[in-house]
Amino acid sequence: MFKKSLLSLAIATTALTLVACNNAETVDPVEPEVTTEEVVVEPMAEADPMVEADPMATQSIAEIAAGNENLTILTAALQAAGLDTMMMDAGTYTVFAPTDDAFAPVLEKLGVTKEELLANTDLLKKVLPYHVVPMVVMAADIPYGTDVATVNGATINISDANVITDASGGTANITGTDIMATNGVVHTIDAVLMPE
Question: pLDDT exceeding 90 applies to what percent of the chain?
Fold first, then answer.
């Protein structure tokens, strides 16, 4: 009987041990999950800097105009109005330069000769600065459909077809672009822009 009690006790102890093992949660060791994610650091966006004049250029805007056989009237007009020195000074300008052919309709419309036009310095001082934007605007950066302020304070508007509309409703086609100078850039046009 003692053997039976001992056997019963041994079975009960084993059963209890097995039950205790079954009720305990077993946790297998888990290695931490390592994730590698590529982090790309973008440089901070900066405002577009104003385009500077071409450091490789060797002539000022006035010198380029004076050396161009199609800009003789513009050169004479700048000199007559005393604006040629401004176009030689350091700075950053965009000049929409009317060719000699562009002046013919103006002379006809005003009923004056070239000499009479060049003698009218008040008109020249009003009209010529209207062809100058006080920053460098390359052909690829023209802000199409936006009013662009000129040096004389009035604005021009340029379409995506490279047609400039002036304050008087007249238009001029941009015929040549990106002639780089030490103090800016020249684009040639086929009409004289009128501020009023």
Answer: 66
Q: How many helices (H) and strands (E) does the chain have?
A: 6, 7
pLDDT confidence of 86, banded at 50, 70, 90?
Answer: confident
Give the chain as a 3 state SS string: CHHHHHHHHHHHHHHHHHHHHHHCCCCCCCCCCCCCCCCCCCCCCCCCCCCCCCCCCCCCHHHHHHHCCCCHHHHHHHHHHCCCCCCCCCCCEEEEEECHHHHHHHHHHHCCCHHHHHHCHHHHHHHHHHHEECCCCCHHHCCCCCEEECCCCCEEEECCCCEEECCCCCEEEEEEEEEEECCEEEEEECCCCCCC
Model confidence at 18: pLDDT above 90: no
Tokens 């309709």 — which residue? 105
**What's residue 30's pLDDT?**
52
The percent of residues in the chain predicted with pLDDT above 70, rounded, is: 72
